[in-house]
Amino acid sequence: MADNFPAGLRLAADDADDAPIPADKRQVIKKYIDKLFGRRDRVTHKDARPVIYGADKHNIRREDISRCARKTCEELQRAGYLAFVVGGAVRDILLGMKPKDFDVATSATPEEVRSVFRRSRIIGRRFQIVHVLCGPEVVETSTFRAHFTREADEDNRDEHGRMLSDNVFGTQAEDAMRRDFTVNALFYDPVKEEVWDYVHGLKDLKAKKLVMIGDPATRYREDPVRMLRAARLGAKLGLAIDAKSREPIPELRHLLENVPQARLFEEILKLLLSGNAVECVRVLRELELHHGLLPLLDTALDDPETGPFAMAALRATDERLAQGKPVSPAFLLAALLWGQVEKNLRKFEDKGQPTIPALHNAMHEALDEQRETLAIPRRFDATMKELWLLQPRFLQRGGHRPYRLLEHPRFRAAYDFFELRAASANAPQEAAKWWERFQDTNPDERERMLVSDEAGPKKKRRRRRGGKGKGKGPGEGGGPAPSDMSPET
Ligand code: ATP
Ligand code: MG
Q1: Is the pLDDT reported for residue 20 higher than 70?
Q2: Are 129 and 32 in a shared domain?
């Protein structure tokens, strides 16, 4: 257990217990230590004391805290409990960033929190937290909780050391210790404007270091997702992952295979939508944590044909987020899997299948392959497929087809996708430019812009029903390439 504590909290008396010192001498040493440090021998990690930084020692002002989080802490303190803003919000403000949300940690039990705030509700079953509501704002309020069941540590882990449950109330010190990185374990009291630090988090933050609390290997075994969090938070915060926290990753990265798919996917999505996707993916690859997560992260980024497009999609996502624009996870996922879809498409076309049936097969195969490693929830399937299926239609610029495509409910997203491909040399630039003009111009000019159909596909157009010929003939439209999906482009 002692290995789980930060080195600074290791107790002299604990170490003395293991040493081969006779009992009487031990007593003398113990008394000496008592005298030196006050009754430090009694102090277990459970009662460890924090370093408290006053308002003049840090840059958080209570105005930086949302009104609801402030009120939650004030009211709880007034009712006699300890209450602090904790975790990501404190860390972000200290780094001069704007927090996404504010979480409160308190000594009050969920029931007690509930009784202080009329507008609150208890949520969760395994570990209850309370949502305190003020106007539209919701503050997640959790009772201090311990690292894991104090008694039955061994029973509480699977055979790889992964923690199975995490639902015991604890002291504030324990609540600090159960967190992942030291910079994530800082408490801010908006009443006294103090930062309470049990784990040297503030020092690490100043040194721009991401340091795992306790023994890193043990903590990654308990929860392998912490390895992904290291990559994401390191990238997001511009912190270097501490050498000791990085060291066990190569031998433990395989444990990610045991993490439930839904949780893994959630973390990957957080990473991709963090606003620093490019940097996150770089760190993931550096730590070699990317294997099996998305085919893209395995191989496609290195692929000279599709890599630039995948990278461009990551970059575009980061840029949109920086401008406060909404991003669609399905769009990004479709972009990340596009390389695989194209590869499969070529395979089916080489077997003699026409483009559209080949594209259907290619999509399904790409999604199936993906499901073997990291399942993308099915709710994204429909949008991704639509984006993919609309791609060949951007090369059809004769007759009614461009008008029909323009009216398609997914036109905008599909066009953005196509444009990004063109900008990454994955589709003809000229076609993307054509579409840019076609959207904006007047009806007469549109008519003039139509590119007369070429031989092959034109015949198919005559088919009125069944739509089988629809969207066929990738060379149609006079574009420079025979097919935007062909290996040459
Ligand atoms: P973000 O900026 O993405 O919100 P965050 O650090 O706030 O980053 P959350 O998932 O919101 O991440 O978690 C809130 C806090 O809970 C963290 O700051 C950390 O203290 C703790 N925490 C989250 N995940 C873990 C984990 N896997 N193991 C230990 N502690 C964790
Ligand atoms: Mg958070």
Answers
A1: no
A2: no
